[in-house]
Design a protein that fits this description.
Elements: E1 15-20, H1 26-36, E2 42-46, E3 52-53, E4 59-60, H2 63-72, E5 74-77, H3 91-95, E6 100-106, E7 119-125, E8 129-139, E9 142-148, H4 151-167, E10 172-175, E11 185-188, H5 191-200, E12 207-211, H6 212-226, E13 233-237, E14 243-247, H7 264-267, H8 271-278, H9 293-301
Parallel strand pairs: 1-2, 1-5, 5-14, 7-12, 10-11, 10-12
Antiparallel strand pairs: 3-4, 6-7, 6-13, 8-9, 13-14
Helix pairs in contact: 1-9, 5-6, 8-9
Length: 302
């Protein structure tokens, strides 16, 4: 999908990709992706990113996963359980400085929703704001969470958004960090107004760029317009040439190992996926049908 394209060079020949299957339904949808890409020049290097405690009790991902991502520069990640405890920052984002989170939401031909003209890219700043994970207890029953926003990171994500818009022939950006660019129309809008306008007329939006909390809300809303998180891909773009692409839905523990998972979010960069969805005959349970994950995979492979 073009929304992920920026300025990086494409490697020719066999591309080694770090595969992080994830938890719950993650291994199932990852297996679906591997089967579909079996004929492609891709070598998978599977790694586990479960957090471990390093020296001094600091949480970190395994050295093997760290080395693999830095070596391959490209990762595909299934859904992971989100730890709810002190000391667990978003390590995959911060470890590799994956500063830009790119969510393209495009209406899918063959799957009808009330909105059939959605074509929006939401770009989130990944490393600051609520994602910084800076919080502490003050007294019993009171927790303070600190949201850091810096000029440097805000400028960085704004420059990325404008460059991304240029490269993908988009012309209208709505953002929360002020930066100017003459050849692209720029608007500012508060998060509440953006939500209101989004459900009234999503066609008025092209590219949105904002801090992570507001972006998380708006990107989920955009996903709802086209069918939900199960049909929405996501790319985390790194400052050090490391990128991680992933599904954005949860681990689906209630349907894990039942062949009911919808792999579309993890597959959506593949053109063949759209061919299977287009005629409306290969919709999984997530999209209101009864097609199994394995059947969906076979339909694409045929």
């Amino acid at each position: 999908m073009g929304a992920f394209h920026n300025t990086k060079q494409v490697t020719r020949g066999v591309q080694t990709v770090t595969l992080i299957p994830g938890d719950g339904i993650g291994p199932e949808i990852s297996a679906s992706v591997m089967k579909i890409f079996d004929a492609a020049p891709i070598q998978w290097e599977e790694r586990n990113v479960t957090a471990i405690q390093g020296p001094g009790g600091k949480w970190m991902i395994t050295p093997e996963a760290n080395e693999s991502m830095h070596k391959n520069k490209m990762g595909l990640k299934g859904p992971l359980n989100s730890p709810i405890a002190a000391g667990h920052p978003f390590m995959n984002l911060l470890t590799f400085d994956l500063y830009a989170n790119v969510w393209p939401c495009v209406s899918i031909e063959g799957y009808k929703t009330p909105y059939m003209d959605v074509n929006i890219v939401t770009i989130l700043e990944n490393t600051e704001g609520e994602c910084s994970g800076t919080e502490h207890g003050i007294i019993d029953g009171v927790v303070q969470s600190i949201k850091f926003i810096t000029e440097q990171a805000s400028k960085h994500i704004a420059e990325f958004a404008f460059e991304n818009a240029r490269n993908n022939h988009r012309s209208n950006i709505t953002e929360e960090v002020t930066e100017n660019c003459k050849d692209i129309k720029f608007n500012e809008m508060c998060p509440g107004s953006a939500c209101l306008n989004m459900v009234q007329d999503p066609s008025q939006f092209d590219v949105l760029v904002m801090p992570n909390l507001y972006g998380d809300i708006l990107s989920d809303l955009c996903a709802g317009l086209i069918g939900g998180l199960g049909v929405t891909p996501c790319g985390n773009i790194g400052a050090n040439s490391v990128d991680s692409f992933e599904s954005v839905h949860g681990t689906g523990q209630d349907i894990a190992s039942k062949d009911m998972a919808n792999p579309t979010s993890l597959l959506l960069r593949a053109t063949a996926c759209f061919a299977a969805i287009k005629d409306g005959k290969s919709l999984t349970r997530y999209l209101g049908s009864s097609v199994k994950c394995s059947d969906f995979t076979e339909e694409i492979c045929c």
